[in-house]
Amino acid sequence: MNKTSRFSNFLNTVNGPFSIGRSAVFWVAFLIVTGYLYFFPRFASRYDVINLTYFMSWTFVAMGLSLIWGCGNILSFGQMAFVGIGGYVYGIIAINTLDAVGNTIPALLGGIIIPFLVAALLGYFVFYGRVSGVYVSIMTLVFTLVLETFMGQTAGDKWRVGKALLGGYNGMTNIPSINFGSTGLKGASLYYFVLTLMVVTYLLLRYLVNSKYGVGLVATGSNPDRTEVLGYNIRLIQLLAFAIAGGLAGLSGVLYVAWGHYITPSTMGLTNASLPVIWVAVGGRKSMLAAIISTIVLQYFTQYLAVTGSEFALIILGALLLIVVLYMPAGVIPTLANCIGKLGSKRRQEALSNSQSRRGVGA
Amino acid sequence: MQLFGEIFGAIYLYLDSMAFLFLSAVGLIIILGMMGITNLAHGEFMMLGAYTAVLATRAGLPFPISVVFASLMVGLFGMVLERLIIRRFYGNLLQSLVATWGISLIISQGMLVLMGPSLQTIRMPLGGITVAGKAYAAYRLLLAVIAIGLLIVMWYVFHRTKFGMRARGAMQNAEIAEAMGINTSRMYQFTFGIGSALAGFAGALYAPTTVLAPLYGASFLAPAFVTVVVSGGANVIQGALITSVLLGIIEGTSSRLYGTFIGRMALLAAAMVILRVLPTGISGYLETRGERAR
Amino acid sequence: MKKRVSLIVITVVLLMAMSVGVLAKDTIKIGLLESRSGTFALHAGPKYLAAQLAVKEINDAGGVLGRKLELIAPDPQSDNRRFQELARRLILRDEVDVLFGGFSSAAREAIRPIIDEYEMLYFYNNQYEGGVADKYTFCTGPVPEQQIEPVIQYCIEKFGPRMYILAADYNFGQLSAKWTHVFAEKHGGEVIGEEFIPLEVTQFASSIERIQEANPDFLVMYITGDPHASFYPQALAAGLNIPFATSINVAQGYEHKRFDAPALAGMHIGVHYVEELPTPANQDFVKRFREMFPDVPYIGEQTQNTYVGIYLYAKAVELAGTTDIPKVIEALESGISFDAPEGRVYLDPKTHHLVRDIRIVVVDENHELHFPKTYEQVWPDWLSREKGVDLTKKPEFVQYEP
Q1: Last residue of a domain, one of C224, C248, C271
Q2: Same domain for C149 and C133?
Q3: Domain shared by C286 and C383, yes or no
Q4: Residues C92, C97, C102, C108, Cα dihedral to 10°
Q5: Interface contact C258, partner B, CB < 8 A
Q6: Cβ contacts (< 8 Å) between B122 and chain C: which residues?
Q7: Whether complex ipTM tops 0.90
Q8: With an 8 Å Cβ cutoff, is B9 touching chain C?
Q9: How far apart are the first and last CA of chain C?
Q10: Looking at the domain assignment, is residue C202 inside a domain?
Q11: Which of A203, A330, C135, C271 is deepest in the core (most CB within 10 A)?
Q12: φ/ψ (deg, to 5) at C324
């Protein structure tokens, strides 16, 4: 197979049947928005760039959850635990090795690989133990709470890894920025880095979902028993998806601590643990893009509520959740897309019937 | 005498942690265990029960009557909620999770707006009793007794009365139950109401032991879910009994020996290990074993 | 290009400002991050009110340098991540001149890296575990050497040397317990047992049993937060009849108002401020506060500190003649003092903490407070004495631990 055909093969798979948004219009819009995002720092204020960087950092955990929940039908409440692991691992490695190595590449990789492995281990426990359905959600939630409780008591000098103090409930501070050798990524450079990662991850995940493996995952999600009978190793399929989601969550954690130079165990608390679930559920769990958009939009929205200082902020958020699951169970973005699609096809139909009737008159 | 004191102290501790696990879980046993609704607002139901009971006591009702009143009110609230929202999510665990999370945000933050960040508690009734030179809270012993009584009543209601049989029938197979002339819709509403009332009841019972704040329910949530999930869905009442005894012993022993932190970790770790070994929970395991024996 | 953008911005700002009738560039912007929802609403909510009171009083008296103070106070919702987001927002977008806030130490540590990154001036207004030596941070709350030593000394003298420590299992509790060991040894006491409780635990049966087993002369309590406050009714019901020493309760979470008496009877607190402090200055402050905010549940130490912090900032700006941050820091480090509701406070230039009077406060059977002893002008000097910190000479950005 030569290079071009392999590439077109890749594109075909990216545009496969399990992703929402396959039309030419979709891809044009996608290119326009991506282009806009690349030009954003040229005209936006420094604050808006930094803020958007922060929001985009969280899209990875959402994409991972969309992979396991939307495709594999595994609802994990534990993604924030992997965010926490990623953040802490990045912090520990970066603090210890930045001076010696001169960059944070080992820390960056460690912050993705370690959560991947931990997720694989937990996934082994869960999927090979044939735990399923809501039990998985509760087990992952319990895992998160255990980790939070544990990290909360790591204050003091005895919880020191090399030069890095874990810092207990108060958290680990002075975590360096991402650094590829010269200076740390900050402001616009961090923005471009996160944006590029986001676009690449999105395309790769679309490829994954529509590949042979993805077919197996979706099949396992909708009917595990039948899929198993068909000869798929469903345990391995679920385990792998869970591990990938863990690695993606770890990446979110890395980007978050590199942005804020700080992480606390409360990142893994009950309220935070529910956030990815909310983002993905509101956006529409079956679409990666919906997960990305809703992660960013919802964070803008909740931040706006916080800024206004309204004590009704959390009430409004709760009501929004309720409305979404009551009236748009597929999520806001697929529902909207569907409406627009219908509107479009209706117009097309009208146009069609108009032209037909005109032709009829002519004839 | 020394030995008797030791033994009494140990029993008191075990009973206390078992009662806590069971009472935290009691409403959820029905709502999650029987009906399959993952009620993340469980803690908020308990908080509503606690607030109602304390406000009623402050208004002049005797505490025991306030507790009953509180559970009735929360039960009623649950039935309304069921009619308006919950019934759309039967058989859909994941959606109900998100919906009830929304409800929990609204209730707890709404309470903060309504009643402020804290409510003055009422004094723990009954005072202390002294056994072998050490004082114990009599009220906590009473809680253990209530937990046992409640367990018996629930078992009786759901296994021996006509209503209980019908309710369980409706939960297990709605179509057949409907064909047999049971109004399943009413049944569901009623059962949800009972689950809510029990959550309110437990919340009210624990009100004098802790501080009342809008996030009062949060501390019950993890133990409640652990208990119900470890117990499994097949035979919830029996499962909850065994689970709270088992986890109570694990938590009680480890916190007695190594302190509260280890106790909490041991509880959560035990839950994960049990689920790994018995993926359908303890009652599911008993059920399949029972079937095999037959 | 840049010029045109800023021209547009200026025009817009001017238009907005004129519509309010004040010139925007004339206000001094104070960013405040205090949670009005979530876990810490109870403790941090009144701090927001205190800031409003201080700003109003200063503005009514003509402002600072002829400019009015303006408070910008989004709600961080007791969420550390939100603190980070909003701190950046206040600094970059609202361009505040100074930042106040944070209840928990975790929130402070979340903000501090951002403060240091943008070289912003920051006031933290809570009592805490101590040790922050940061050129840009000023702490108006008391620290362990001010609170723990007096109360431990007092309790050893009064009840005997054997103490048992019950502490929350996080930084504040663990560090305070460490400090207690140090001061116990210094004053001839002995720690006969200690236990750390995870923050979300509400049930204390096994701890109470262990305490009864040990039977200490007094109990040292560093338990915090709503779940932990459940200890008191449970201890009372179990008939635990031992005096308590603490640095944290009552003055912050007004447990003596929230629990039925006599749950807290016999509690001894080493603290600089409680609402009931019977001095004319404080009674006047409480009156003004309650006139403006009749619904405030309690004016705790952190609330008063916030008020003091804003006055100290105003005083420093007046002294510096500008809001330029290095100059204001210089003014703050010039040895300024202020007649606060709690009494005279002096800002120690070396450590950026306050020298102040510390009272022993005792809770009685009816939850009335008594003030048997005052330790005058106690210094927050552990940093300068043990760690050689002198922020006027050597800027640092760390938190030391004992």
Answers
A1: C271
A2: no
A3: yes
A4: 70
A5: yes
A6: 260
A7: no
A8: yes
A9: 53
A10: yes
A11: C271
A12: -55, 125
